[in-house]
Amino acid sequence: MQKLFVRILTWLGIMAVLTLLTMGAWMIVSGGSQSTVSLKWFQFVQTIGTFLLPPILCAWLWDENHKPFHWLHLNKGADWQSFVLAIGIMICAIPAINLLADLNSRIDLPDSLDFIEQKFKAYEASAAALTERFLQADNVAVLLLNIGLMALLPALAEELSFRGTLQQLLGSKHLAIWITAVIFSAIHMQFYGFIPRMLMGAMFGYVFVWTGSLWVPIVMHFTNNGLAVLAFYVFGTENSYADTIGAGATWWLGVISLMLTSLGLLIFYRRTRKQ
Fold first, then answer.
1. d(Cα 140, Cα 120) in Å, to the nearest integer?
2. Over 80: is that where the pLDDT of 83 sits?
3. What are the residue boundaries of the structural domains of the chain, listed by start?
4. What is the pLDDT of residues 41-62, one digit of tens each?
5. Burial of residue 165, with CB atoms counted within 10 A of its CB: 0-12 exposed, 13-18 middle, 19 or more buried
């Protein structure tokens, strides 16, 4: 327990220092500009400082042979069928995610907590507006940059931090997976998307345990984020079908998606057990 406490403090300490350093560097270079380009640079350096570098430095310290990729399970891959199945599960899960997000958004807090609920809604509206600014792309080059910034980098960095570091530190499989999933969802500060993000985090956690490779949940995470970026580029804000399929009038698609996703995960689990 003492070793776990020390390691968590080490990880959080390195994270805090690197976050402050990267944010300070951005402030010096940009002068705190709120332009879209400047804010994209801020997200880039913050993701690296907060989620990407700390796990690598900690893994280097904690591995006996100073091989961070080994400690983080990045040295092990999976067969191509596992990656194809993982991507298929993620694509199939989109209507289920939308259904769960819709149900989550219908949660009303008690009247005594109305001021908190209003703050949640205002924050999420602000975050959604900023995300829309980031996703604007009038050519393929900007689209590819958006995919790198908002899909690839977060998928790699967040999986290194949550499944690669926190989940491994907590140790106990089921408990570690669900505690990590709750923290993973909470850190995004989006109350009305908490449930689907938590379940998605748990799914990534189980896939990591089953395969022993961090690359599989990274690919699944990237698929989810990348599809969202691509859908915005193709449909824009005028056609939000990609964000609503499975919710509202098409709830039945969400239910079917939920069942198919569960079946896909069961198949994935049985494949890995046989291997």
1. 34
2. yes
3. 1-71, 77-274
4. 999 999 999 999 999 999 999 9
5. buried
